[in-house]
Here is the input.
Amino acid sequence: MWYGETVWPTLVALGTVAAVSVTIWLDRRKPALLVVPLLCIPAAIGAIILERQIVTPGEQVAARLQQLLGDFEQQNVAAVLDGVSSRSPEIQTIAEKALEKVTIQNVRLTDVNVEISGEDVLRARSHFRVTADVMLLGLPPVKRQPTRWKATWEQEADGQWRMLELDQLDPLTGEPVYQARQYLH
Here is the structure.
């Protein structure tokens, strides 16, 4: 786990140190013992500020995913294609066809889980759920359609995370389904 992923362990440690120091102060009543709990307050504030400054690779992937969904909702073909790796022409083709045939609104991204791997080349696997109002050409709109997805990402030479693979999963079982692809061919 990266330090910047959560600040809670640091805050709990500082809170524990402050509580123990106050307990010792209550027993001995020496004013010098109050310095430690008072220093824990700016240390906690500093830890929160530092944590907000650190953007982990997992957070970068989650932000890129949110951006990609927003671009799809806005029907921004160039931005969506920029979010897919040029080494994945099949996914780029599917994305182009989907943008021609599908409109989504009221997109809600939930249950995002990102795992980072690799040392020389950073890769990430993300698992996420998307609920949206879906309008497919020629069919009546479907309100609040739940979907579940698994994607593989790679950080490319320009520092951007781009999608390499995308699999639709059954929303309940998590088994791979190819429902989205069948409508696009």
Q: What stands out?
A: The first strand starts at residue 102 and ends at 117. Residues 57-184 form a domain with the Nuclear Transport Factor 2; Chain: A, fold (CATH 3.10.450.50). The chain has two domains: 3-53, 57-184.
